[in-house]
């Protein structure tokens, strides 16, 4: 099988592990920087070129699209889909999961547990917005933030008003969510491949920080998840349309609540914490599912 991995850096842990696993199973694999691609968009013979050569004869593509290049990166994925190449995560599913508001609305529609969430742009009715999520303490997020950046915990009503007013001055979209105190700066990352959770880890925020992101200095360890958490993670990935996903769950007093569904989950933390060869499982999934024309959307949407 001939596999393309869309990644800006072939030395990244996740990318190199996927390359290693693909080669171990006798596949031809090429790392392609999506920003260095250029495309011929025609109705009869769509093509993608990279470094002066057409990318032809590929059976599957693995998108590792960073949040900062979502627009162009998903355009490249969409072009592969138009060429009939199987995409591990389809372009529509990636853009759906990257839109925090849209993803939460889709999850809510299907009854997935979520923190009570408010959404606003520049409302002057700050007090009412705070009351929507049952008051302080609460978490305020920039809609475009990633890896814990642009996330603030407001412990009092006055602090919440000040932060919201400050964000309003930026003329940006914000999410306001209830603070799940009982989570104790911990969340569970469930790694979904296909229709099952293949590995799970607990992420713990560094001392004094309510955010559990590894990029913010958090730590990880293996965790046993409940049947409800397992079901929630699989359903959340399916609702997004993702074959591979990292589903972040908080353990609340009223059951698991989903914080985010990540379309390009990293492999270092989950493989280190669990000792499970997740990269191999991803390649095995592609072997079973990568058939010409199997992509559902074929670049639509």
Automatic annotation (TrEMBL):
Keywords: ATP-binding, Ligase, Magnesium, Manganese, Metal-binding, Nucleotide-binding, Protein biosynthesis, Ribonucleoprotein, Ribosomal protein. GO terms for cellular component: cytoplasm; ribosome. GO terms for molecular function: ATP binding; metal ion binding; ribosomal S6-glutamic acid ligase activity. Its cofactor is Mg(2+); Mn(2+). One of its GO terms (biological process) is translation. It comes from the Bacteria. The keyword Ligase applies. InterPro entries: ATP-grasp, ATP-grasp_RimK-type, ATP_grasp_subdomain_1, RimK, Rimk_N, Rp_bS6_RimK/Lys_biosynth_LsyX. SUPFAM superfamilies: Glutathione synthetase ATP-binding domain-like. Residues 104-287 form the ATP-grasp domain. In the C-terminal section; belongs to the RimK family. This is Probable alpha-L-glutamate ligase. The lineage of its organism: Bacteria, Pseudomonadati, Thermodesulfobacteriota, Desulfobulbia, Desulfobulbales.
């Amino acid at each position: 099988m001939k596999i393309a991995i869309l990644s800006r850096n072939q030395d990244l842990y996740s990318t190199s592990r996927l390359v290693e696993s693909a080669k171990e199973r006798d596949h031809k694999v090429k790392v392609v920087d999506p920003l260095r691609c250029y495309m011929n968009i025609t109705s009869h013979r769509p093509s993608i070129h990279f470094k002066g050569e057409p990318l032809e004869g590929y059976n599957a593509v693995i998108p590792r699209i960073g949040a900062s290049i979502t627009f162009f990166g998903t355009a490249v994925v969409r072009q592969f889909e138009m060429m009939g190449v199987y995409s591990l995560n389809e372009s529509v599913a990636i853009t759906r999961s990257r839109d925090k508001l849209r993803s939460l609305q889709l999850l809510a529609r299907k009854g997935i547990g979520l923190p009570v969430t408010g959404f606003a742009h520049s409302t002057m009715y700050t007090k009412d917005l705070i009351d929507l999520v049952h008051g302080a303490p609460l978490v305020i997020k920039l809609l475009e933030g990633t890896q814990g950046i642009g996330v603030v915990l407001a412990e009092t009503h006055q602090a919440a008003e000040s932060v919201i007013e400050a964000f309003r001055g930026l003329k940006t979209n914000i999410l306001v969510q209830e603070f799940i105190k009982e989570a104790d700066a911990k969340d569970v990352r469930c790694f979904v491949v296909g229709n099952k959770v293949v590995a799970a880890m607990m992420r713990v925020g560094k001392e004094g920080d309510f955010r559990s992101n590894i990029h913010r200095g958090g730590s990880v360890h293996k965790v046993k998840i409940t049947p409800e958490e397992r079901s929630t993670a699989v359903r959340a990935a399916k609702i997004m349309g993702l074959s591979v996903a990292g589903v972040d769950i908080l353990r609340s007093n009223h059951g698991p609540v989903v914080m985010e569904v990540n379309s390009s989950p990293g492999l270092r933390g989950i493989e280190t914490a669990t000792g499970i060869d997740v990269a191999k499982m991803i390649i095995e999934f592609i072997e079973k599912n990568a058939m010409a024309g199997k992509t559902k959307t074929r670049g639509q949407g």
